[in-house]
From TrEMBL:
Organism for this UniProt entry: Trichuris muris
Compositional bias ranges of the Polar residues kind: 948-962, 971-980
Protein name: Amino acid permease/ SLC12A domain-containing protein
Pfam families per record: AA_permease, SLC12
Chain ranges passing through the membrane: 119-152, 181-207, 256-275, 382-402, 422-443, 523-543, 549-567, 579-596
Length: 1104
């Protein structure tokens, strides 16, 4: 229905439509943009329009405010084809079909200079059998690659860049940039190859009278290469000027070049059936050796192809002695006769059989294994073998990306590219294979091995096969090489400009600019310089192998892309071309690698190293691009497989245990330096390896938009911090209304499978004493983290003095001291070993201390400890510290009294019964007791136990309600109960399994040990009387902490890091303030401390 329902609105609608049409005409309208624009902007605009159309969909009115209806979405949907690209770029597109747009340009690019200059020579050297297999191998390789190209090109729109665009969007910017640069070099070097080939045709066959270096008849390699370099540089300059004028001038030569190539091919086909002995040019043979053409006044072959004395051939093989007038001739000359035979006799079975076997020769040989004389016989200028010839011929089958490069100019790319590319490849394959049979079946083998036609008065051998005149092939081959070089010189700068425009390689940004005529002039200058460097190599036989490896590397990656996407079954892998299979693509990639390493393995290594270097450079320096590449899908599939293989197991072997860190951070300005130090320490501990998850909990509502923005900012900030600290891990930001209650949820839910964190690291709260007085929740958050970690049976790391820890660039010398009080599974010894692997701590020595009490044999204890450390293969010195004196000093009572006063203030926070029931250790103990009761089905007291459990819960509620009322009524005094079963758990393992009722019964039974502080009458009570009323268990704990601290300061005052056991946290929250006092006394006066608590499971073993 029409949006404009009345006259008042119709005017505004028409004016808005005019504005929208004007915007779209100027390229500013979002609706006419392709889908690669930001979809969020499009959806927002569509949603505003969709609201009026959704009145009949009341159920979805709320959704329309943020998302468009299907009708509105479909009305705005535009596929970026030629028409849309034309509107977006402001220039008219060609809208070409399959024949003009893909087939003919691809045929023109594939049929290169090698077909006329080298294919016949390859047939003469390798024979019909091996040369046919060689050409077939190359054609199968490119055919399989064409299938992969067809699949990739029809899986979306292919923009400029061809192979670069395909690989970068499927394997990521790293591989795409690396292969794109190689593909650029392939086109630049191909320009030089075509130009040098054209110069060879020009100087040797078309215009041999042009000025040249040295004697043209001598054909010295140095002079020949200098001629090639000089004239090819001149042609390169001409082509540079043509390309600089614009692509229109380049396209002017394309139909002319293509017509010449087609005429040349037809001329060969006709000439193969027309040629005969009578019409064939003749050659002079001495036995099985082909002789060069000797100049003669009469001009015909019979006038000089004789053994007449003092004739040109006789003079070449015989010498007359000046003193005795004796004549010495080459034995081969005397033993064989001269014969004049037709060089191109036409098809015959005898000739086909003669040319079928191979005749590989080394440099300077006239026949296999026989050295010749270059001045009189046709010899080879390079050593030949199958793989050498394969490297020379392979550039003849390249050019299959031409159709994909023109996808923007095609009317229906998804139809034209597969049909045109595969048809062109099959057509050229038929031409090459048929030419092998034609050359081998119509031309003498000796003449086929005459690379430069020196036996035919310096005529091109293939040109003499042409009908009706040799000039058709000479002119056609030269124009085809010139046109092919022009196409390569035109496409290579555009490829470089595409790479620079994507900004994946920072130092190429300057080449992203174009002129007013949309010509990449800067890239053209660089491409011309690269092509000139390739021209300086010299001959076409030396440039062609280099071109091979650049193309082969590109084709290999294209095949890998198709195979990878097919095997991963990515949801976005939906090519319209259906006739492909991953095995064919994989076979194509293997064939590319085989050709690379079988021809010139050192070239292959250089190209691979160059590709790897560019890859690492882009990974390190390149801009971050997210193109939904296939490697991410491969990583996900690999991760899924690995996670299933290492599924979380309770009984994992200690050899496979490694710390998987969950780092809990507080995100605010005051904690920036501490967080940085914590991340750097994690990097040193993990040495950049293993799982690390950095997590933080924010208080707020996830449905709030400001909270969502804050979450994104915190994520970006934490990601930046872990990158700066070189920590390889993940960031997790959790939003919760009640922070303390979600610490346990975070600990339980973070990670997946066997990659769940097993170790939590949380920083020491430096202002915890002030936090108690200020009722700050940060203090309780730290204690909750310790509490929950201990409950979840996870290892716990608490670094104290983080600001004093070394940076990643520092080098620490000294000792790392381990104070091993309790065996917690060996984590206390594993951590310093891991730290020692990092360069920061590598120069530190490890010392292990343990404590011997009165009943321990310290000598035997030290021997056992030394042996155990040795068996663990850890290089460390050991020492045993004796704690013989059990006397408690008065200062210990004073510290305990101070702790009690701080605890009284901490309890002003009024712990509720609900908070008490949420304490995880009590819940765990209650659940464990219930399970034990349910398992004991045969016990006669099962009913009593259930009743007792219910009574316990009711008692818990009633007692804490009474405690709350008591706190509310009493303002001057607060009772503090000592609970040995909770606080003293680390000394007595038998008190671990208790219920809530047990805890409260212990508290009631210890009523005599309670301490009441009346703040108004503090000065009236003597210190001795206060000491007598202190809980003795707390005094003993304080005494242990103080003695351990004295021993540590005495032995490890100069240590770079002290690692010691973290005592077990209390089970109930109201015991945590005392726990913090113990830890403070234990670590007092130490610069760097790492408190460690293991889970009790063995994490280190002496077995291999």
């Amino acid at each position: 229905m029409d949006d404009c329902m009345n006259d008042d609105t119709s005017k505004s609608c028409r004016s808005s439509e005019k504005k929208e049409r004007r915007k779209s005409k100027d390229g500013l309208g979002d609706e006419c943009k392709p889908l690669n624009r930001k979809e969020s902007d499009m959806f927002r605009k569509l949603s505003q329009r969709s609201f009026a159309h959704a009145q009949g969909l009341s159920l979805y009115e709320d959704d329309v405010s943020s998302m468009p209806t299907i009708a509105a979405y479909l009305r705005s949907f535009t596929l970026p084809g030629p028409k849309e690209n034309e509107e977006a770029d402001g220039r008219k597109r060609a809208g070409l079909g399959t024949l003009i747009g893909v087939y003919l340009p691809t045929v023109q690019h594939i049929l290169g200079v090698q077909m006329f200059l080298r294919l016949f020579w390859i047939v003469g050297i390798a024979g019909i059998g091996e040369s046919f297999a060689m050409v077939l191998l190359c054609c199968i390789c490119t055919f399989l690659t064409s299938i992969s190209i067809s699949a990739i090109a029809t899986n979306g729109v292919i923009e400029s860049g061809g192979a670069y665009f395909m690989i970068s969007r499927n394997l990521g910017p790293q591989f795409g940039g690396a292969v794109g640069i190689l593909y650029y070099f392939a086109n630049a070097f191909a320009t030089s190859m075509y130009l040098v080939g054209g110069v060879e045709i020009l100087l040797m066959y078309l215009a041999p009278s042009l000025p040249q270096f040295g004697d043209p008849t001598a054909r010295r390699e140095t002079d020949v290469f200098n001629n090639f370099r000089a004239y090819a540089s001149g042609l390169l300059l001409i082509e540079f000027c043509i390309v600089a004028l614009g692509v229109t001038f380049v396209q002017f030569f394309a139909p002319v070049s293509l017509a010449c190539v087609v005429m040349s091919i037809l001329s060969i086909y006709i000439g193969a059936f027309v040629t005969s002995d009578a019409a064939s040019p003749e050659i002079c043979m001495l036995g099985n050796r082909l002789l060069k053409h000797f100049p003669s006044d009469q001009g015909n072959l019979s006038s000089w192809c004789t053994k007449a004395a003092d004739g040109p051939i006789w003079s070449a093989y015989c010498k007359r002695s000046n003193s005795s007038a004796a004549v010495e001739c080459d034995p081969f000359f005397n033993q064989n006769t001269l014969s004049i035979t037709a060089g191109l006799p036409g098809f015959s079975a005898a000739l086909f059989s003669e040319n079928f076997p191979a005749s590989y020769m080394d440099h300077g040989e006239v026949t296999p294994g026989v050295a010749g004389v270059n001045s009189r016989e046709i010899t080879q200028d390079i050593a030949t073998n199958f793989f050498m010839l394969l490297a020379i011929f392979y550039p003849s089958v390249t050019g299959i990306f031409t159709g994909a490069n023109m996808s923007g100019d095609l009317k229906e790319p998804h139809k034209s590219i597969p049909v045109g590319t595969i048809a062109a490849q099959m057509t050229t394959s038929f031409i090459y294979l048929s030419f092998v049979l034609i050359f081998g079946g119509t031309i003498r083998g000796a003449l086929l091995r005459d690379k430069y036609g020196e036996s035919l008065e310096n005529n091109m051998v293939v040109a003499l096969l042409g009908w009706p005149s040799k000039w058709i092939l000479l002119i056609g081959s030269f124009t085809s090489t010139f046109g092919a070089a022009l196409q390569c010189l035109c496409s290579a700068p555009r490829l470089l400009q595409s790479i620079a425009k994507d900004d994946v390689i920072p130092f190429l940004r300057g080449f992203s600019s174009v002129t007013k005529q949309n010509e990449p002039f800067r890239a053209l200058l660089v491409t011309t310089a690269v092509a000139e460097c390739a021209i300086l190599i010299g001959g076409i036989d030396y440039i062609a192998p280099i071109v091979d490896f650049f193309f082969l590397m590109c084709y290999c990656f294209v095949n890998l892309v198709c195979a990878l996407q097919t095997l991963l079954r990515a949801p976005n892998w939906r090519p319209r071309y259906r006739f492909y299979h991953w095995s064919l693509s994989l076979l194509g990639a293997v064939m590319c690698l085989f050709i690379m390493f079988s021809t010139h393995w050192y070239y292959a290594l250089v190209v691979c190293i160059l590709c790897a270097t560019i890859y690492k450079y882009i990974e390190y320096k390149g801009a971050k691009k997210e193109w939904g590449d296939g490697l991410r899908g491969f990583a996900l599939s690999t991760a899924q497989y690995s996670l299933l293989q290492i599924e979380d197991s309770v009984h994992s072997h200690p050899k496979n245990w490694r710390p998987q860190l969950l780092i809990l951070l507080k995100v605010d300005k005051l904690s920036e330096k501490v967080n940085t130090k914590a991340l750097q320490f994690a990097h040193q501990l993990k040495a950049g390896r293993g799982l690390t998850i950095v997590a933080t909990i924010l208080e707020g509502d996830l449905a709030d938009h400001q909270t969502q923005e804050m979450v994104e900012k915190v994520k970006l900030r934490l990601k930046h911090d872990i990158e700066d600290s070189k920590v390889r891990g993940f960031v997790q930001v959790v939003v919760a209304e009640h922070l303390a209650q979600n610490v346990s949820t975070l600990i339980q839910s973070v990670g997946i499978g066997g990659l769940r964190p097993n170790t939590i690291m949380v920083g020491w709260p430096y202002s915890w004493k002030d936090s108690v007085h200020q009722a700050d929740q940060n203090y309780w958050n730290f204690l909750d983290a310790i509490h929950r970690a201990a409950t979840a049976d996870m290892c716990l790391l608490v670094p104290k003095g983080l600001l004093e820890f070394p940076d990643s660039n520092d080098r620490v010398q000294g000792t790392i001291d381990v104070w091993w009080i309790i065996h917690d599974g060996g984590l206390l010894l594993l951590l310093p070993f891991l730290l020692h692997q990092h360069k920061v701590w590598r120069q530190c020595k490890l010392r292990v201390f343990t404590v011997a009490q009165m009943h321990d044999n310290s000598v035997k204890m030290k021997q056992d400890l030394q042996n155990w450390v040795y068996q663990l293969r850890i290089d460390a010195t050991v020492d045993v510290v004796e704690f013989a004196d059990s006397t408690i000093s008065a200062y210990t009572y004073e510290r305990t009294l101070i702790m009690e006063e701080r605890t009284r203030l901490a309890l002003d926070l009024h712990l509720s019964s609900r908070e008490f029931l949420l304490e995880p250790q009590l819940l765990a103990d209650r659940h464990r007791r219930r399970l034990n009761a349910n398992r004991d089905d045969s016990s006669p007291d099962v009913g009593d136990q259930k009743k007792s459990t219910m009574t316990t819960e009711l008692s818990c509620h009633s007692q804490f309600k009474g405690l709350q009322s008591e706190d509310a009524e009493t303002s001057e005094s607060i009772s503090l109960s000592s609970k040995p079963s909770a606080d003293g758990a680390e000394q007595n393992d038998g008190k671990d399994d208790i219920t809530e009722r047990d805890v409260h019964e212990d508290a009631n039974e210890n009523g005599n040990n309670r301490v009441r502080f009346d703040m108004s009458s503090t000065n009236e009570v003597t210190k001795k009387h206060k000491f007598a009323r202190l809980d003795h268990d707390k005094v003993r704990k304080m005494n242990t902490a103080m003695k351990l601290n004295d021993a540590i300061k005495e032995k490890s005052s100069d240590s770079q890091l002290v690692i010691l056991n973290l005592p077990r946290p209390p089970k109930m929250r109201h015991g945590l303030p005392n726990y913090m006092d113990y830890l403070e006394v234990l670590t007092e006066g130490l610069e760097r401390v790492l408190l460690v608590r293991g889970s009790g499971k063995e994490v280190i073993t002496m077995y291999s």
